[in-house]
Amino acid sequence: MKKGIVSAVLATGLLMAGTANAAEYKVDKAGAHAFINFKIKHLGYSWLTGRFNDFDGKFSYDKNKPNESKIDIVINTASIDSNHAERDKHLRGKDFLNVKKFPQATFESTKYEQVNDKEAKLTGLLELNGVKRTITFPVEKIGEGQDPWGGYRVGFSGETSLKLKDFGIDYNLGPASTHVTLELHIEGIRL
């Protein structure tokens, strides 16, 4: 009987060792090494660009099992910054982000598909302006390794185009301004 228990314990240990968890990372918000930017055409004549200054998140990643990766991001929508106070006030209002009613936007991944060593497709649930939609977009692994302070980091970049009406934003900005491009540049520090 003791032999059977010892065998079971050893087998469980080997099984657990073979399915080690992916490393957990905290988005480097404190060091300002992560950015969520946006751009939208202004009347078709130029680009209006901006960013969200306040967001946080975490992700898991193992280069040996990349398809098991997951990411969760929370954005404080009132932190929108287009470098123009009056415009930002309008963007925070009911015509756009309605930040009083929806103070946060969230993204929770549901699937990560590795294409090659650097490229993947990320799918997840984006909640913006009280609307939840599944989106998929390409991401690029920028790199990973030790940092000068004894930590370990990995970084990714991705970009997607969102149709404003899909998220309940139907303010008429003209026919050239129906979509906004969202750019994510995420660097994480391993916990």
UniProtKB/TrEMBL annotation:
InterPro entries reported in the protein's UniProt record: Lipid/polyisoprenoid-bd_YceI, TTHA0802/YceI-like_sf
Signal peptide segment: 1-22
Presence of the UniProt keyword DNA repair in the record: no
Superkingdom of the organism of origin: Bacteria
Membrane-spanning intervals of the chain: none
Gene3D superfamilies for this protein: Lipid/polyisoprenoid-binding, YceI-like
Protein name (Swiss-Prot/TrEMBL): Lipid/polyisoprenoid-binding YceI-like domain-containing protein
Residue span, Lipid/polyisoprenoid-binding YceI-like domain: 24-189
UniProtKB keywords: Signal
Keyword Cell membrane (UniProt): no
